[in-house]
Every structure is written in structure tokens, then in C-alpha cells.
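Margin note from the TA: students keep mixing up input and output lines. Inputs are the sequences; the output is the structure of the whole complex. Example:
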Amino acid sequence: MSTKPALVPSSHETISRRGLFMKLGILFNGFAAMVLAVPVVGFLVSSVTRGRGNGYLSWVPLGPIDEFPEGETRLATFRNPNVMPTDGKTVDTACWVRRVAGEKFQVFAINCAHLGCPVRWFPQSGLFMCPCHGGAYYRDGARASGPPERGLFEYPYKVENGLVTIQAGELPTPGAAIASLTGEKPPCAS
Amino acid sequence: MRILIGKIGLAKIGDWFDRRLQLAAPIREAAEHPVPRNTASWFYVFGSAALTVFLLQLVTGILLALIYVPSASEAWSSLQALNHDVALGWFIRALHGWGSNFMVAIVLIHMVQVFLFGAYKFPRELTWIIGVLLLLMTLGMAFSGQVLRFDQDAYWGLGIGASISSRVPIIGPAVVKLMLGGPIIAGATLSRFFALHVFVIPGMLIAFVGLHLMMVLKLGINEWPMPGRIVKRATYEREYHALTRQEGAPFVPYAIWKDLFFAAFIILAIAACAFYFGPFGPTGQPDPTIIQTAPKPDYFFLWLYALLSLLPPSMEAPFLLIGPALVILALILLPFLSGEGEKSWKRRPIAVLTVLLIAITLGTFTRFAQFAPWSPQMSAWSGDPVPARFVQGTTALERQGALVFQFKQCRNCHSLGNTGGQRGPALDGVAVRLTQDQLIRQVIQGGGNMPAYGNNLSPAQTTALVAFLKTLHPAGQSPARDASRDIVLGDSGQNASGQR
């Protein structure tokens, strides 16, 4: 077989017709990849971009105000505002509602401020206790003991037409506490 | 048909295929490549055992996927169907679950063996680094597999994962939404972990296992380390080839029979565990409104569960975020920091001590996590009565104090007669340790990890409770006394609150 010199570039300065086409081909594929990358990346991070600002948060009702006796803390459940057909039971979330007096409430997330395990309320000792790593909180949500570095997360609430309503929709985590939306931390246990 | 095959001969059929595939020669070459004789050892079987378990996981995983439904509303019921309705579904689930435990264990043992035998040194640095990546992928499979068993533990385990991720500075909240596929743990979360567990990580595992194996073949299996035989970059490859030429033996069948025996033994061990102990879970339904749950991670993450309870709160975030990065970095840098020198564990005392230290640490944390002395026992106050001997011969006030002790859930954290929580100290002999004043102060103000009960106890309740606590001392040992009170108030001083 005789080699055709035209197929092989003779030096680095000259470029053959096929060599040029190959480079153009790579460039063309790079362009196609970029065109595709925009929607692919957009799809991948859509769960983040949708949540910008208050994107996921909505006001959801917990129940009539009469269901929460003054001075007591009761378990309430609400349906997450964003529901997908395959969510099953996971869209129902629990929270602790403390009616301090009149229309003054505190609505605590069920998630421990340490690592998110569900805290339980013990009215006799006036404490929330976490079953995972032993965090404990006072009745006003302030940290009492254990590994949590802060008090329980609180949902912003309002009472409208006799309904207790909270602003919910995101899993409260130590890094993105929904409590920060209210701009206030639980008062210190006196 | 049989006659026909007999006439043409199997060899001819084989030839027909090999003419087209051209695989026989490279396979024979790989199988018969010479290995140092002393590597035909029972210490060298863990890599092939890990591969065997990986193949078992692939097969059982595909079998489970025939029934399993990766939907937050159906996953739990499809697991129940596998356990109870589908013939032998429970056994396939058990094989996959026990296979995962065995795989993590074997990969770790393989890693320790490679480390102690100096096999990560020149020229096998990249083989080690890919091995580190394979370990991370194996752990990723273990965690994502636990999520696919979509039960209460999986649900709250995801919450723990989200809480840890959220602590990453600045991008934490975005990482959480990326991980959960939305703002909460729901359907998208499970689908996402399904894609990771079934497509992404296994695909990477297959590719990297292939690379890992190819490098073992090309670079040769690590020779048995001899004390004093020093690895030098300039001479090692020549020495290794001389070694395999002089005293090498073909890998098949000289060394492989031990791998085969061990692989079969491991498969049978997994099958035996699966048969006797059955599948893992699922525990309760993944319903976030059921809060009567105490989530615990699977066995190989128990040490982390313990660590998260025992670290001081301020240390936690840096430890969780920087710790893993440092460990991975150290593992990847290892072959570059000690790529030459002694291979034998007999001349590497620090290496041996490091392995022992890590093993003992992980073992201790795992053991701790099994009985979790830091978690309050949520039902101790109502479920474990004060043992009778603690209230025999006590006054009415002291018995009232015992009632307060139970009713105010002190028992959830403090044990009496070895029942109750272990979060706080056992109170069987508390009166010997604390005087009456100290008891009152501790109850009302708390401190040292105990909540303050001042807001929650009436003065009468506090008096009764402290009266009961003062009776808690071993027979023959008197309760602690504040000597200064004797001097100031006379003998009546200690009895000011109606004590005996």
C-alpha cells in the first residue's frame, strides 16, 4: 500500500483539508453539547432554582383556633403546599402548636434543630425531647440541653377567619431555618 | 442435535467464534500471567471476594427491581409484597441486604490488607486511588440502598442527611434542595436516590472496577512483602519482573483456587445469614406524621450516629464538613507521601498502630451506638415503675417525691435500679454525691446537660422530689452533708426541710 502524503499533514504549519474538517467537526459537536447543556443543567438544578426567594413557601391552615386550648401544646398536621402525584404520605407533616394566650401562638417544626429527628412533647415536664441524640427544649422552644445549638425552628403564623395558618413548604434544616423568616428567635427560658 | 455437535466438535464451534471475537488469546494470557508464588495466599483473596459480592448485588438488585416500585406512595407496599406475597421475595431481599453488609466489610478488609502489605506503593498508586473511589461508591450504594428501603428509618435518615448538608457554608440550602429534589423529603427524593442507586453509582462502579482489575493485571499483583526489601522507583519494576520470571507461577490455576474457594464460602455465608436472619425491614411506614419513632442508621453508619451524639455541639459542623474531606484527602495522598520504602508491616509500626486505632475507635463508637446511652428513653417515666425497695419505709413526703420523679419524666434520662434512661447519671446513690442544697440547685437550675425544672415544679413538688432524692444512698452510707450548716444552724440545720 502506498501512502498518500496528502492524508498526513507534512508539518505543523500546514493543515490538510481533512484535518480542518475534523477540527470543525469537533467544534460543531462542542457547540451542540453547549446547546444541550443549558436545558440539561437547568433540569438538574430546577429544584434549587424554583426555591429561590420564597418560591416553595405558602400559607397552609392547621385548623380552627378552638382546637388549640390556651396554655397547651398540641400536635397538628398539615399538607405540604407542593404535592407531586407520587409523594404518598410524605406530604403530610406534623408540627407542635403552642397557644400561649389569645391569638398569640408558637408553631414549632417537628424536626430537632440538631439533625432533624422528630421531637416529642412531654406536657408533664414541659419539655420537648428528641429520640436520636438526646436534644431537649423548653416549652417555648428554647434549647434546654443536648447537642442542638439553637432552639426549635418556628413557622411564621397568623390567625385568619378563626383558622390558625402557618407559612410552610420547606424542610427546616439548621442551614436554612424557616425560623429566620420570622426574624425572631424563641425568647430565653426564664 | 447432540450427535451433530459431537461430530463438528465443540472445539470447532469455539474456533468459529474466536475467529470473529479474537478474545481467547488475551484471556489466556491474562489467566496464565505469572504471579509471585507467595501471593497464592489466603491473605490475597479479599479483592476477588469483593468482586464476587458485587456481582451478587448486581444480580439480586436486578431481581428486586422486577417487583420494587420507586415511588414514595408505593415503595413501602412493594417491599411488603416482596416480603410476604412474592415467592422467595424475602430471600432475595435478605441476600441483597446481607450482601451489602458483607460488601462494605470485605472492601474495608481488602483495603486494610492492601495498606498493611504496602501494595499501594510505587507503581500501584493509581490502583489504590481508584480503590479509594470504589470504597466511596460502595458507601454511597450502602446509604442510597438504605433510602430505597423507604421506611421510617429511611425517611428520618434523609432528614439527618439534609441537616448535615445544610451546614455547608453559603451553598448549604441549595445542596439540600438538590439532594432532596425539592423542598421536602418526598416522591422526587426517592426517585433521585433510585437513579443514583440503580444507574449512576453502579455504572461508575462497573467502569472503575474494570480499571482497577486491568491495572492489577498490567502492573502485576503485589509480591509478598519481605522486611528489608525496599521499594525504589528506579529499580522496583526490574526487580518485580525478575521475581516473577524466577519464581513466578501462572495465576490460573496456581493462585486462583484459593480465590474460588473463598468466593464460594462468602456466597454461602451471605446465603446462610439471609436464610437465618431474613431481610432488613422495612420498619414503619414513611409517614412523617407518625412521630413515635427513634430512627437509627444501618450497621456501618452506627459509628457516625454515636459520634454525632458525643461531639461537643460547637465542634460538630466543622467536624462533619471538614473531617470527611481530610480523610479522603489523606487516603488519596497516602501513596504519594510513602510511595517508596518498606512494604512489610513488620517494619511499619505506625501503619499497624493507625489501623488498630481506627478499628478500635470505629468499633467502640459502633458498640456505643447499639445501646445509645445518650437518647432519653421516651417511655421510662410511664413504663418503668420505681423499684419497690426505693420506696419501702419512706415517709409520705418522700413517696410523693418518687411520684414527682416519675411524673416529671426524670426517669427518661436517669436510671434507678438499672432501668430508665442513661442520658444523665444513675441516681441510685445520688444523695452521697450531692447535698440537699446542691440537689435543689441542680433540679431548679439544671446545668451539665440537664434542663432547668424551676419553671415546671411548684415549691411543694421540689421539696418532695429532693426529699425522695435524699433517700437514694446505699445502706450504711450516710447522705452528703454540708458541714458549714452544722456549725451555723446546729444539728437542726440539716433537717430544716423535714428530713429524717
